[in-house]
Amino acid sequence: MHEFSLALGLVDRLKELAKENNAKKINKVYIRWGKLSGVIIDSFVFSFNMIKEEEELLKNCEIIVNEEPIVYKCLDCSLEFEKEDFKFPKCPNCSSLNVKQIKGDAFIIEKVELETEEEEK
User: Fold this and answer.
1) C-beta atoms surrounding 26 within 10 Å
2) Is residue 50 within 8 Å of 90, Cβ to Cβ?
3) d(CA 26, CA 38)
């Protein structure tokens, strides 16, 4: 289950960000996730929620997942189009199979909401 390892990595990165910014709490973390990333998002979120309970800094942290659509570009007519899956994508404009995936495999931290010592004063 590599989702658990990814969640551990996220926790480590959030702790680094908190230290760099003198934060005492992390309230929210936004993740951009694509279906083609290879990450089972429910398992990842479950793992993160388990791990965060052991970290005072993250106890109340909410994880928000924004799904990135799968987008292809036709190399014949240049049309960009979304598709729900990756099974033999065909251009809806010219029916070409000469397409390239350009979005849908992201798995990145988009934004983190921190609470710093200064905000309390």
Assistant:
1) 24
2) no
3) 26
Q: How buried is 43 (Cβ within 10 angstroms: 0-12 exposed, 13-18 middle, 19+ buried)? A: middle
Identity at 30, one-letter amino acid code = Y
- End-to-end alpha carbon distance in the chain: 42
Q: Which residues of the chain have pLDDT under 70?
A: 1, 118-121
- The model scores a pTM over 0.70: yes
Give the tens place of pLDDT for each residue, 52-75. Answer: 999 999 999 999 999 999 999 999
* Residue listed under structure tokens 């800094």: 57
Phi, psi of 88 (to 5 degrees): 40, 65
Q: Which fold has domain 2-69+104-116?
A: hypothetical protein PF0899 fold (3.30.2320)
- CA dist., res. 81 & res. 28, Å (int): 31
Do strands 80-83 and 70-74 pair parallel, antiparallel, or not at all (unpaired)?
antiparallel
